[in-house]
Structures are given as C-alpha cells and as structure tokens.
Design brief:
Blueprint lengths: L1 H15 L3 E3 L12 E12 L6 E13 L4 E14 L2 E15 L4 E16 L4 E21 L2 E10 L13 E9 L2
Parallel strand pairs: 1-9
Antiparallel strand pairs: 1-2, 2-3, 3-4, 4-5, 5-6, 6-7, 7-8, 8-9
Length: 181
C-alpha cells in the first residue's frame, strides 16, 4: 500500500519536475543576464481502495550559465499528499547541471537528497526517512519564440532500487516551458 502512495506522489513530483526556467542557453556574456530562475508545480488527484486524495508539489530552481553550453545551479522539491487514509510529505534539495551538446539538445544531471514522512491513518502507522537520487538524462528545447521553448526530456535515477526506494519508478519524464530574461 505504501508503494501505491509513493507512486502517486512520485507521479505528482515528476509533473513538478517540468521546469519553468527563466533563461535560455543561447545567452552570451555581456548581452543578457546569465542567471536562470524558475521551477515547476504539480497537482494530482488519486482514488481507489486507499481513499481519494490530492497532492501538491513545487520545484524551485536557480542556475547560472557558466558558458553558452553549461548551466549549473541548485534545485529543490517539496511535495505534500493527503487522502482519507494517508498523508505524506517530501522535501529535497541538490545541485544540477545541463550541458548543451547542440543549441537545443542538452544532457542533464542532478543529485537531490529527499527527506520524507508518511502516515497511514487507518493503521496509525508512521515512518520517516531519507533517500538520495542521482538523475541522469537528456532533453530537447523546442523553440516557441525568441526567448521561450518547450522543454521535453527524460531522466533516470541511477540510485533507484525497486525493493527499497520510496519512489515508484526510477524514470522521470520532463515537460516544461523555458522563458528567457
């Protein structure tokens, strides 16, 4: 049952991974700011034998374009899920890097360390813990104009262990919008 809650929560957190950044990899020194800001939000609804519930997640981030090809920064995640029979919260923070192999094609890496707590209201069971993730993947920016792009990608948590992870899967699809300053 715990895995079901975590699958729903991980799905909502995956939706939150859809980054809304405030910059573009084509920024040149002296022309525009090299800082990127943004994040994502996710809202989920669930149902079934565990009761109906809702989840909300946010994922702020700040980055710096060290060069036209390399962006590095810090990203966080926070999420809450609650239903008739359960409640769950998770917080994570860590560094990230995007390397643009082509102007719109990037390789991604991030490490986040999560802290979580989970409560089953039916059995009066509580658990707290933490887990690290190392996400590696790639993405593509589909240009929507001079300073905006649709970001599509996929990441995989190479530290994921099916039998012991709080996440339902190691795979995270990424969809988002990137805006320039």
């Amino acid at each position: 049952m715990k895995k079901l809650y975590c699958v729903v929560f991980a799905w909502a957190a995956g939706a939150a991974s859809a980054q809304v950044a405030v910059s573009s990899p084509t920024v040149r020194a002296g022309k525009e700011s090299r800082w990127t800001f943004g994040g994502g939000i996710g809202i989920g609804l669930s149902g079934g034998s565990s009761g109906y519930g809702t989840s909300i997640s946010i994922s702020p981030r700040v980055g710096y374009l060290a060069s036209p090809e390399l962006e590095a920064g810090l990203m966080g995640s926070a999420g809450w899920a609650s239903g008739k029979n359960y409640s769950h919260s998770m917080y994570g923070l860590g560094p990230f890097a995007n390397y643009y192999v082509l102007p719109n094609l990037f390789l991604h890496a991030d490490y986040r360390h999560y802290f979580y707590n989970w409560k089953n209201k039916v059995y009066d069971y509580k658990t707290d813990g933490d887990e690290g993730t190392l996400n590696l993947g790639a993405g593509y920016n589909v240009r929507l104009g001079n300073k905006a792009a649709l970001q599509v990608g996929a990441y995989y948590n190479v530290l994921y262990k099916k039998d012991s992870s709080i996440f339902g899967s190691g795979f995270t699809p990424v969809f988002g919008v990137v805006f320039g300053i």
